[in-house]
Amino acid sequence: MQPLAVHELQSRQLCAVHTINNLLQLSRDVTHGEECCCLPATKDELDRIADELTLAENNLLRPSADRVSPSSELSRRELSYSDLVFSRHRTVWWGNYSYEVRLARL
């Protein structure tokens, strides 16, 4: 018997999260076997990717002495409130994500 297709309904404005999960047929409600290569996307995960992209862009504009490694924990604290608000990669409260965030997750 063929399994039913996964269709995750959208909540809030997290369309990127639900699009990725629907496209890859991943669900938070289903326990995936060990053969599964990835877990369902989450808002926290996409927020982290968006923040890393924003930090990488900011680093390109900074002098080399002031640059921060995008993978360090310190880097998350380096983003100011204005960096988060004016980020090209996500909206702070609503969860709209840029194409680059979705592509990085896939």
Number of helices: 5
N/C terminus separation: 28 Å
Order of helices and strands: HHHHH
Major β-sheet annotation: none
The domain count comes to 1
Overall 3D shape: elongated
Average pLDDT, to the nearest integer? 75
Structural class: mainly alpha
Contiguous runs where pLDDT drops below 50 for at least 5 residues: none
> What is the C-alpha radius of gyration, as a whole number of Å?
16 Å
Helical fraction: 40-55%
- What's the number of extended β-strand segments? 0
Fraction in beta strands: under 5%
Structural commentary:
- The protein is mainly alpha-helical.
- It has one domain.
- The protein contains five helices and no strands.
- The two termini are 28 Å apart.
Quick recap:
43% of the residues lie in helices and 0% in strands.
Keywords:
106 residues; mainly alpha
Topology:
Elements lengths: L14 H9 L19 H19 L11 H6 L2 H5 L13 H7 L1
